């Protein structure tokens, strides 16, 4: 149970406070309701590049990191397809420094050409390091456009290609800031060794003077239902063949989301899970295999990914995966197995309460979804899923016409 | 009127409140350290065994034993163990370091009674069946083949080999080494290493008397130490290496992985805390000189960092990055310049003040929950030190002078004498 207080400033900034006096630290987590799904198709990777620029100085503070480090703080941020999330952890006695720094970034950026130049390079190196310069690194660059036709989830957060980042202009940066970094598009969570009243005072002092700039209203193209299987085969300089099958799944706020999440656990969470037990250990077809979903707010992708052993053909490997998926469609999961994955959900939620940063991020994310208290009802949502729900969702997901299959064929793979 | 150009007042961190463990020795000699704190009804229990090196090149045996522990015992199959752990929502994680292996159980208190006997069975009755071993070998060979195409992975291996040579810390497995693993070798080393007199138990979370009693019954009373006295420890022969540059050319690389460093001193050495400060200035945090110059000024890389590792019989300083192939040589030049600058010019008081605050803040932040208190303890305990080390450490952080840092740089950081590895293009 994560208790919290909630209030909204006149400029629309939502603020949540969670007191945890077991730690001497405080965390300030600021979620902006903008991700790569809000980008223009010809200027992708921009939300993430912008996240880097947020550390390049603000209107009144030439450097974000210097003063942050000087009070013993650690900070970072991440961008996803849905959100951009900034966080700073520091000794609670220095909480006000976080308010000073974060409010100035919301007020306005320094917009320096030097910072833009450097961060374009840094992000290009990040692009190469994570997506281009390692085996299978480009899988999401290929799988997303294979599965999504119109929704902006068809590109990865890093961007479609290096050139989009290389061509980013200062005008784009300014426009992006005005459109997305307004107080009414943000959720601020303060957690740790803090008092609600003191946080209210600090919020009024530092954030209330920031003028509202209008709420961004998202109008994204809906992904039409997929009606035929997609397939892409790549011959690549990778050591082993590799196989990815992606299915369109429910959005985060649909009831069916919980069944889909439990299906990924049944298939691949822990060493007793179905894919590992059957395909790695019993039938000895794969060296590794996993199932997961993108955890996105709009329609998700559910992915099964595996590397077949060198003596197994791709056809046999693919068929073996489908056999496992068909089992979920045709046979109801037992109470025992369903309880097993639910127990794991329960313990994971308890372990997540050990860290204030994790609690703060979760509160912000659930508030974005509609209500931070949803975090505390989450376990019940999972426990309400029945064996029929699982079967129904498996039938919805695992259809050939709903699938996009990506295959890497290794130059050197020995048959 | 709100002043936004000036920071709010700074409150320095006064001290650390470390949890001291309750220390128990069970009747069979097993050492137990207990950290009881926290609201949540959960525990983390770590069984940590020391590696006993009969041969310097046995690291693959050590890791294989630990990772195969959950793959079957005399009474439970691999599948049964997996079901028991997963059904109770627990996590059972093998971990392998240079000098120790560990088995870590994360569990809600309410399921411990079902899970502790499973762990006991694994630690005493693991069988390493031929079938499970064959699966393990097959899958790990495939995984290693994938890793060997990652430049940073290859660079770390080359670095370790170059610094430590044939000593244990320089061993890196080749794909073919997996074929040398035999069930018999695993069983022999398993029976030597996994025994109470060679094991340490670190327990953290909400630890009731019931938990301690269960542990005592299963891992004290019922765990018999066989095999007589522990063998006398072989000390590895680690010789200083001459500085050199090793390049592994990858013709299609977009980035080069750089890794460099040298031998250093261990945690108990009086210079170690000061070296931590020096390391932080150079490459130990986001505002470090390497990050400021090579990422934030030049944009050559996404990340560059340095660190120190204190091992049981040695220690090393290391620095690594992945940079565009066209700026690989330039990056090496800038690293050399930054190291020499630390040797030639004392750091400013302003920079030192930031580094002090940063280290103290991250130290405080690293004590967020009871698990992290246990981790702090393990760091010093396995270096043969007590928690009072942190008093010495924080005192050095707060009192070290720019001249002392300069002196440490001249003593321990010499670019020419470092091993430098580049995997990619230069």
Automatic annotation (TrEMBL), chain B:
Domain (Peptidase M16 C-terminal): residue spans on this chain: 181-356
InterPro entries tied to this protein: Metalloenz_LuxS/M16, MPP/UQCRC_Complex, Peptidase_M16_C
Top-level taxonomic group: Bacteria
Designated name of the protein: Peptidase M16
Organism: Parapedobacter defluvii
């Amino acid at each position: 149970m994560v208790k919290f207080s909630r209030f909204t400033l006149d400029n629309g900034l939502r603020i949540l406070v969670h007191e945890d006096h077991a730690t001497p630290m405080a965390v300030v987590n600021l979620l902006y309701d903008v991700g790569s799904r809000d980008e223009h198709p010809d200027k992708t990777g921009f939300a993430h590049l912008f996240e880097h620029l947020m550390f390049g100085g603000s209107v009144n503070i030439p450097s974000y990191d210097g003063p942050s480090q000087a009070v013993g703080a650690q900070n970072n941020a991440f961008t996803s397809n849905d959100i951009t999330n900034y966080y700073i952890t520091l000794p609670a006695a220095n909480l006000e420094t976080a308010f000073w720094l974060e409010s100035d970034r919301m007020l306005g950026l320094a917009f320096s050409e030097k910072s833009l130049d450097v961060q374009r390079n840094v992000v290009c190196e990040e692009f190469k390091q994570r997506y281009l310069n390692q085996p299978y690194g480009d899988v999401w660059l290929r799988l997303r456009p294979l599965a999504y036709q119109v929704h902006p989830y068809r590109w990865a957060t890093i961007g479609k290609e290096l050139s989009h980042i290389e061509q980013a202009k200062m005008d784009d940066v300014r426009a992006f800031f005005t459109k997305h970094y307004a107080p009414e598009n943000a959720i601020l969570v303060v957690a740790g060794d803090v008092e609600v009243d003191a946080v209210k005072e600090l919020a009024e002092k530092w954030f209330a003077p920031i003028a509202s700039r209008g709420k961004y209203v998202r109008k994204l193209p809906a992904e039409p239902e997929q009606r035929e299987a997609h397939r892409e085969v790549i011959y690549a300089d990778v050591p082993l063949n590799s196989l990815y099958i992606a299915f369109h799944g429910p959005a985060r706020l649909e009831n069916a989301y919980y069944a889909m999440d439990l299906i990924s656990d049944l298939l691949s969470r822990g060493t007793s899970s179905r894919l590992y037990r059957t395909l790695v250990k019993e039938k000895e077809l794969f060296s590794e295999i996993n199932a997961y979903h993108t955890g996105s707010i709009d329609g998700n992708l559910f992915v099964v990914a595996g590397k077949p052993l060198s003596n197994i053909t791709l056809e046999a490997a693919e068929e073996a995966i489908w056999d496992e998926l068909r089992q979920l469609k045709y046979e109801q999961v037992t109470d025992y197995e369903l309880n097993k994955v639910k127990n794991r959900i329960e313990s994971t939620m308890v372990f997540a309460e050990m860290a204030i940063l994790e609690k703060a991020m979760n509160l912000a994310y659930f508030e974005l979804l509609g209500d931070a208290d949803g975090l505390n009802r989450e376990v019940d949502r999972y426990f309400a899923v029945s064996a029929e729900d699982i079967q129904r969702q498996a039938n919805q997901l695992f259809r050939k016409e709903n699938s996009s299959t990506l295959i890497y064929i290794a130059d050197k793979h020995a048959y | 009127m709100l002043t936004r150009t000036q920071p709010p007042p700074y409150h320095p961190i006064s001290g650390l409140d470390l949890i001291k463990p309750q220390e128990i020795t069970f009747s069979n000699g097993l050492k137990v350290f207990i950290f009881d704190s926290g609201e949540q009804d959960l525990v983390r229990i770590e069984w940590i065994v020391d590696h006993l090196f009969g041969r310097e090149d046995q690291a693959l045996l050590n890791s294989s034993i630990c990772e195969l522990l959950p793959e079957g015992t005399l009474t439970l199959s691999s599948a049964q163990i997996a079901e028991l752990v997963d059904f109770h929502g627990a996590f059972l994680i093998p971990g392998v370091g240079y000098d120790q292996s560990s088995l870590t159980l994360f569990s809600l208190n309410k399921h411990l009674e079902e899970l502790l006997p499973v762990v006991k069975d694994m630690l005493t009755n693991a069988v390493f069946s031929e079938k499970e071993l064959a699966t393990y070998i097959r899958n790990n060979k495939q995984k290693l083949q994938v890793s060997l195409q990652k430049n940073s992975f290859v660079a770390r291996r080359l670095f370790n080999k170059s610094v430590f040579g044939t000593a244990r810390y320089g061993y890196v497995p080749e794909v073919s080494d997996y074929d040398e693993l035999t069930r018999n070798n695993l069983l022999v080393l398993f029976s030597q290493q996994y025994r109470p007199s060679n094991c340490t138990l670190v327990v953290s979370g909400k630890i009731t008397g019931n938990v301690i009693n269960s542990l005592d019954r299963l891992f004290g009373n019922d765990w018999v130490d066989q095999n007589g006295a522990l063998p006398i420890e072989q000390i590895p022969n680690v010789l200083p290496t001459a500085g050199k540059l090793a390049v592994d050319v990858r013709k299609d690389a977009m980035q080069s992985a750089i890794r460099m460093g040298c031998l250093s001193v261990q945690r108990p050495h009086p210079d170690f805390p000061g070296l931590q400060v020096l390391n932080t200035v150079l490459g130990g945090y986001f505002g470090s000189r390497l990050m400021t110059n090579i990422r934030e000024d030049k944009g050559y890389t996404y990340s560059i960092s340095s660190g120190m590792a204190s091992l049981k019989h040695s220690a090393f300083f290391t620095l690594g990055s992945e940079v565009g192939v066209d700026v690989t040589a330039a990056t090496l030049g800038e690293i050399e310049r930054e190291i020499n600058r630390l040797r030639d010019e004392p750091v400013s008081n302003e920079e030192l003040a930031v580094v002090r605050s940063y280290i103290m803040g991250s130290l405080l932040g690293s004590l967020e929950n009871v698990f992290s208190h246990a981790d702090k303890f393990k760091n010093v305990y396995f270096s043969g030190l007590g928690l009072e080390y942190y008093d010495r450490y924080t005192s050095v952080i707060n009192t070290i002078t720019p001249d002392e840092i300069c002196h440490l740089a001249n003593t321990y950081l010499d670019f020419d004498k470092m091993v430098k590895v580049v995997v990619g293009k230069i």
